[in-house]
Amino acid sequence: MEASVIKNITDHRRLEAALEIYDTVVLPMTANDDEEFLVSLPDKDRIRLLVNGGCALTCPIKICYQSFSKMNKFRGGEFQCSQTMKSRELVGMIDFDIEELRNLGIKRFKLLRERQGGMTGI
């Protein structure tokens, strides 16, 4: 069983708790820029990172994660966003350097599906 990025695991305490329950854990895309955290991860074989990202990278609340998860699995879901279209930063798809992440010991990755217009969000 895999813990989703919905868990928003951003520190070792949360990661250790998730690893007690799940076989693998997906870290939020913001973790990709925290080299110190990635280097210090225990059991990197149980960690999965996103190799691309969109508006969730800059979102303060990320309430859309659960609805996107349902939509991506074709199980319904209603889009929710914590910000208005005018205030949120839509930067399009950002690709992370997978070789750099592999050099830090990460071997599992997840790729977000691009939506029309090159965005991950709506």
Using brief descriptors, characterize the structure shown:
single chain; 122 residues; 6 strands; 13% strand; 4-stranded parallel beta sheet; 25% helix; two-stranded antiparallel sheet; alpha/beta
Write a short abstract of this structure.
By secondary structure, this protein is of the alpha/beta class. Helices cover 25% and strands 13% of the residues.
Q: Would you tell me the overall average pLDDT?
A: 81
Shape: globular
Number of strands: 6
Strand content: 5-15%
Note down, in words, how this protein is organized:
- This protein is α/β, with parallel strands linked by helices.
- The protein has one domain (2-110).
- It is 25% helix and 13% strand.
- It has helices at 12-21, 35-39, 64-72, 98-103; strands at residues 2-3, 24-26, 47-50, 52-53, 94-95, 108-110.
- The strands form 2 sheets. Strands 1-2-3-6 form a 4-stranded parallel β-sheet, covered by helices on one side.
- The two termini are 28 Å apart.
